[in-house]
Design goal:
117 residues; 4 helices
């Protein structure tokens, strides 16, 4: 494979796997690994990929980062639609949030989106 083709493949792969402006969820397991504890939301970095996240937060690490939405999934939505979409995804029972740690996701999402309009 010539160098130009390899470079093009790497660039395309980076763009396809980019976490730039994606919404990521920070969390960790409770002591029994039955429930997740919500730690926060953050935007993906402009040069961050899923590979980078896997390296920074390997399977055995205490803190985890999970992709919630790619930036292009939010691009055409209004602020209210973004809030609704994020709340819908965070409220899914698959997350198994720790019931002893009551999180007001609406406040979290409002604050998160308010900081970066």
């Amino acid at each position: 494979m010539d160098d130009n083709l390899m470079k093009q493949i790497l660039e395309n792969n980076s763009k396809l796997n980019s976490m730039a402006k994606a919404i990521l969820v920070r969390w960790k397991w409770d002591d029994n690994k039955h429930y997740r504890i919500f730690l926060g939301l953050r935007h993906g970095g402009t040069r961050e990929t899923q590979f980078d996240l896997d390296q920074k937060y390997p399977v055995y690490s205490d803190e985890k980062i999970t992709l919630l939405l790619h930036a292009d999934q939010l691009a055409t939505l209004t602020r209210e639609e973004k809030i609704d979409k994020i709340l819908q995804l965070l409220g899914d029972s698959l997350w198994k949030w720790d019931p002893s740690k009551k999180i007001e996701f609406s406040n979290v999402v409002e604050k998160f989106l308010g900081a970066r309009k």
